[in-house]
Design brief:
mainly alpha
Amino acid sequence: RSRGVTDGFGFVHDADRLMVADASLFPTPIGVNPMETIMALATRNVLATEGVAGLSLRAVAREARVSPSCLLHHYGTARRALEVAARIFARDRLEEMRRRCAARGLSGCLPDQPEELIDVRAWQGWLELGRSDEDVARIVAAARRWQRALVGDALDYRIDGPELDGLVAVI
């Protein structure tokens, strides 16, 4: 709370269910163009709240508070925007998981705060998308390999093979 108005997921402290998901989330400029981060956060929120069925360029644009044509101008195609969002989401999820596993061991690999369930729901959406989109499938497969390594490391590789794969599948 001493570090800002929102937590790490954009939820406003002391305001139930209020989330900031546009550029105002960043207290200082994050680079020349924060569009990729904003779009990735918006995609995460759409996947978490509406699922894969609700994911569209229009839904992401609405969540990011930009026009769909702005996203198309920036990325060229909806498919490219989806690929970029998947990469950013996977990178950020793995970095957070790595940090938490290093600090708390295996329990750090599991969500322990209600707002972390947003990422869990969004990750389930990415997994589902990975079954039908080959670009997302490659990103998800790479993220799953890193997840497996993080979980195996947290367990000092006391289990491996199918048992480790089964544990990673539920994270």
